[in-house]
Amino acid sequence: DVRDGLKPVHRRVLYAMNVLGNDWNKAYKKSARVVGDVIGKYHPHGDAAVYDTIVRMAQPFSLRYMLVDGQGNFGSIDGDSAAAMRYTKIR
User: Can you give the pTM of this predicted structure?
Assistant: First the structure.
């Protein structure tokens, strides 16, 4: 029983980023790379659900603590959508 408030897709994304060595002090990696690894190894569902999860974790206004450091357009509080995963990078 995990009481951290994260859904399984959140945990799978964070685990996949950890396995990739995608830490806070390393270089950014393409979001599409992380999404592909998560879909291929841990979460066999659509890529939109995984990328939406990454976007939400990278937005400073969505969660109390940003779990993903994003570079690029991850949307705004006014409802603007994020850029496609091929244009954004995360760590």
Answer: 0.91
Q: If we measure between CA atoms, which residue out of 46, 50, 40 comes closest to residue 14?
A: 50
Inside any domain, residue 13:
yes
Residue 87 annotated to the active site: yes
Instruction: Please identify which of the residues 28, 42, 65, 87 carries the catalytic annotation.
Output: 87
**Residue 3 domain flag:** no
pLDDT in tens, 36-74: 999 999 989 899 999 999 999 999 999 999 999 999 999
Length of the chain: 91
Looking at residue 84, its amino acid is: A
Query: Is residue 67 a part of any domain in this protein?
Result: yes
